[in-house]
Design goal:
367 residues; alpha+beta; 3-stranded mixed β-sheet; 3-stranded antiparallel β-sheet; 15 helices; 40% helix; 12% strand; elongated; binds iron/sulfur cluster
Length: 367
């Protein structure tokens, strides 16, 4: 056989990844609360909700949130009618809160459609708030069985290895999307999409992929070349900048904690927070920061720092704590109309992002 013929044969085999992969999926797929039996049509609402929750978040973390959401809001219509603060509270801890606000906006847009249902095509789905190309393709394939190829980080990795793509990410993204589309079968496109996700999560893992157990090992170019561990290649990322803040945890003598609602737009918009200084590029000076504290008191610096990583920066927070009398007034700087005193036992019900929960746990750990 000539080299050209060998190459063509390998190309054809790779493009027939669907047969072994679907057989593997039928036997080994993960049981997940938003999954349906192979071949069955899924509920677009559950597919959409799970896919939005899974963005930047692990399956293990998402499962209890997903179950709580569908118990409380079993349909897109129910979610559309929900109070926004209730949804933000239920979302608290999942991070990336713009997703929660888009979730409500999207549910309302779907409920306002003449049939009250999610549209079926990728193009129409893309017009909904918070739905990008990946989620549109996932809903079209999984809920409607359409020929669509959702490509997330897991799928990028599998495809880069199957075809031994050596171009660095993110430059390789477009090429990987095209290659993923060539693999997708017309029949069972939804199962194929989920099989690729499962393969990436369980077998073709970022480090030490389990090639010996892989249903695609005989057609995988990276496996044949022994370079699976080195793919996909990534351009070196610039280091995240650091921002600094001082947070003021005021604990009232009746056991209530001072919370403030964040501004209506921007990062963590409308979520609750422990009042703090601006998140600035330079380290704040404590004496100056105390002038802007939300309440006059003997503030005490809690030893240690809270470090939280956001997508575009790292935040380092010094936490100050004070125990204050019940009748102590707030200062002008507290933005009184946005502040509220919440009993410690009720903090779990507040729309507090993870970074704020870290601050509270840090400040109250000796109480
Ligand atoms: Fe990934 Fe290895 Fe399977 Fe190739 S053979 S797809 S590298 S797990």
């Amino acid at each position: 056989m000539t080299a050209v013929a060998r190459k063509q044969r390998l190309q054809a085999a790779v493009q027939d990844a669907a047969t072994p992969l679907l057989a593997w999926y039928d036997a080994e797929r993960r049981e997940l609360p938003w999954r349906y039996e192979p071949g069955a049509k899924a509920d677009p609402y559950r597919v959409w909700l799970s896919e939005i929750m899974l963005q930047q978040t692990t399956v293990k973390v998402v499962i209890p949130y997903f179950l709580r959401f569908v118990a409380k809001w079993p349909t897109v219509k129910a979610l559309a009618a929900a109070d926004e603060d209730d949804v933000l509270r239920a979302w608290a801890g999942l991070g990336y809160y713009a997703r929660a606000r888009n979730l409500i906006a999207c549910a309302r847009a779907v409920a306002a459609r003449p049939d009250g249902k999610f549209p079926r095509t990728e193009a129409e789905l893309l017009e909904l708030p918070g739905i990008g190309p990946y989620t549109a393709a996932a809903i079209a394939a999984i809920a409607y069985g359409q020929l669509a190829s959702p490509v997330d980080g897991n799928v990028e990795r599998v495809v880069a290895r199957l075809f031994a793509v050596k171009t660095e990410l993110p430059a390789a993204k477009a090429e990987l999307r095209v290659l993923a589309a060539t693999l997708t079968p017309a029949r069972r496109a939804g199962d194929f999409a989920q099989a690729m996700m499962d393969l990436g999560a369980q077998v073709c893992t970022p480090k030490r992929p389990l090639c010996l157990m892989c249903p695609l090992k005989s057609i995988c170019k990276a496996n044949m070349l022994g370079i699976a561990d080195d793919l996909p290649r990534r351009a070196v990322k610039a280091e995240r900048p650091v921002r600094y803040a001082i947070a003021f945890l005021a604990l009232r003598e009746d056991g209530r904690v001072l919370l403030r609602r964040r501004p209506d737009s921007g990062l963590l918009a409308r979520m609750m927070e422990i009042p703090s200084t601006e998140w600035a590029d330079d380290e704040p000076e404590i004496q100056a920061a105390l002038q802007g504290a939300p309440i006059r008191s003997d503030w005490w610096a809690v030893p240690g720092l809270i470090v939280h990583t956001f997508t575009h920066f790292r935040l380092e927070i010094q936490v100050m704590r004070a125990v204050v009398p019940v009748d102590e007034p707030l200062t002008f700087w507290a933005s009184q109309e946005r502040c509220t005193w919440v009993a410690r036992r009720d903090l779990k019900n507040e729309a507090l992002p993870s970074v704020m929960r870290k601050i509270i746990a840090h400040a109250l750990k000796e109480n």
